[in-house]
Amino acid sequence: MFLVTGATGGIGRRVVRLLRQQKMPVRAFVRLTSHYSELEHREAEIFIGDLRQEKDIHKACQGIQYIISTHGSARDTLAVDYRANIELIDQAKANGVQHFVFISVLGADRDYEDATVFKAKKAVEKYLATSGLNYTIFRPSGLASNLLPLAESFRETGLYLLIGDRKNRTSIVSTDDLAKMVVDSINITAAQNQIFPVGGPEVLMREDIPQIFGRVFNKEPIIINPPLFLLDGLRSGLGLFNREEQQALGTFRTLLAHEFFCTPEEIANLESIFGFKLETLENFLRHYLAV
Ligand SMILES: NC(=O)c1ccc[n+]([C@@H]2O[C@H](COP(=O)([O-])OP(=O)(O)OC[C@H]3O[C@@H](n4cnc5c(N)ncnc54)[C@H](OP(=O)(O)O)[C@@H]3O)[C@@H](O)[C@H]2O)c1
């Protein structure tokens, strides 16, 4: 039995889909408030709980052989990104789990002081790698599925908001490709006890993304490009009455201020280990937006 956390998220729902296509038994950890009917239709076992509750994690881990941790939260980082994963790892050990897959983030090892999600991911990676469990850690750059709502609004308006440096490099990975690697990592020897940086097949500049949207929808993009210091001003103001939101923006700012891309060698390594060609962002968008 596989336990998938974040089963209603961009990666998690695709992982459940793939596992169920292979007729694997899956327990999907979901919140009561989540949209999980697709998972039910795919005959995953639905476990309703909250990852902030230790007792829910204990129950969910009973009788489990594989754990795939894909959940995340920009706002409740300590409880959800950090503590819940530590608890899952402890429970994996207690229950003799055979393999633990963890979704981290590209740059988790760069020690960004102002980005709580990055710090939580780094601490969890370290805990997992020294746990004695079999593991695979994926460090994705941006996920293509995250761009779908932006692409939909671009389709309507032609507008694209690009905060900060237009030339910063990024590599967006197809969320379908990542889900496939996640599932396959359990059976591929070369993926055992490894940390993989994950990106798409091309290194993009951030300003390339609206150009791709433009090609997909045959529409000239109108790029709105405020400087990063405007976000800093907003953060300082927010900090006066909402500390949690200010911290969440710290991770967002880090993502905007730095480059997150994989080298061609890292992509070639992924393609060779997992045995398939990664798809481009444009391909992914055309597939999901039916254009
Ligand atoms: N998005 C990116 O570009 C990106 C880049 C690099 C790494 N990552 C990492 O990749 C992972 C997956 O990202 P994603 O975009 O697929 O995530 P997502 O779509 O934002 O989904 C997050 C998932 O976590 C679940 N969750 C949050 N708090 C929970 C709680 N207290 N109890 C139970 N479930 C909870 C959500 O459930 P609900 O449906 O109930 O909200 C949802 O299923 C995350 O760990 C993220 O840090 C993402």
Task: Briefly summarize what is shown.
The chain is an alpha/beta fold and 291 residues long. The chain contains twelve helices and eleven strands. The protein has a domain at 2-141 and 175-198 and 263-278: NAD(P)-binding Rossmann-like Domain (Rossmann fold, 3-Layer(aba) Sandwich), CATH 3.40.50.720.
Arithmetic mean of pLDDT: 95
* Biggest sheet strand line-up: 3-2-1-4-5-6-9
What's the count of strands? 11
Poorly predicted runs are: none
CATH superfamily of the domain at 2-141 and 175-198 and 263-278: NAD(P)-binding Rossmann-like Domain
By DSSP (H or I, 4+ residues per run), the number of helices equals 12
Give Rg in angstroms.
19 Å
Q: What CATH architecture of the domain at 2-141 and 175-198 and 263-278 would you give?
A: 3-Layer(aba) Sandwich
Helix content: 40-55%
What is the H/E order? EHEHEHEHEHEHEEHEEHEHHHH
Descriptive notes:
The radius of gyration is 19 Å and the shape is globular. The longest helix is centred in the N-terminal third of the chain and has 18 residues, at 77-94. The protein has 12 helices and 11 strands. 43% of the residues are buried. By secondary structure, it is an alpha/beta fold. The protein has a domain at 2-141 and 175-198 and 263-278: Rossmann fold. The mean pLDDT is 95. Strand 2 (26-30), helix 2 (37-41) and strand 3 (45-48) form a beta-alpha-beta unit. It has a 7-stranded parallel sheet with strand order 3-2-1-4-5-6-9, sandwiched between helices. A two-stranded parallel ribbon has the order 7-11. Strands 8-10 form a two-stranded antiparallel sheet. Helices cover 46% and strands 15% of the residues. The protein has helices at residues 10-21, 37-41, 54-60, 77-94, 116-129, 148-157, 175-184, 208-217, 228-239, 243-257, 264-274, 281-289; strands at 2-5, 26-30, 45-48, 66-69, 99-103, 135-140, 159-161, 169-170, 194-198, 204-205, 222-224. Helix 1 (10-21) crosses helix 7, helix 4 runs parallel beside helix 5 (116-129) and helix 9 runs antiparallel to helix 10 (243-257). Bound molecules: NADP nicotinamide-adenine-dinucleotide phosphate. NADP nicotinamide-adenine-dinucleotide phosphate binds next to helix 1.
